[in-house]
Amino acid sequence: MARSFENEMEAFMKAKTEQIPTWHEVMERPRGTEVSVPEHVAILVGLSGVYRQAILRVAQEIDHMAGR
Question: For the stretch 8-29, what's the b/e string if a residue is b when 16 or more beta carbons lie within 10 angstroms of its beta carbon?
């Protein structure tokens, strides 16, 4: 895959802290600090959105490579 596509995928993964504010808050806490159920849900919902974007982008790249 093209280097620009790889960079785009890396950007999606780095975007977690921007797209999921709870992720950043939890990662800043001291190790061993408990995470509440609502925080877990917020992180999972946010991650599903980030991974959805990445999956759609990979599908678009595959279609492009296949000449569709």
Answer: beeebeeebeeebebbeebeee
Whether 63 and 57 have beta carbons less than 8 Å apart is answered as no
Task: Return the structure tokens found at 39.
Answer: 């925080």
Domain of 30 in residue numbering reads as 3-65
Per residue in 3-58, pLDDT (tens digit) is: 787 888 788 777 766 778 787 788 888 988 898 999 899 888 888 888 888 888 88
Neighbours of 5 (CB within 10 A): 15
For 19, the token pair is 């797209």
Q: What does pTM read for this prediction? A: 0.64
Structure tokens at 26: 């939890």
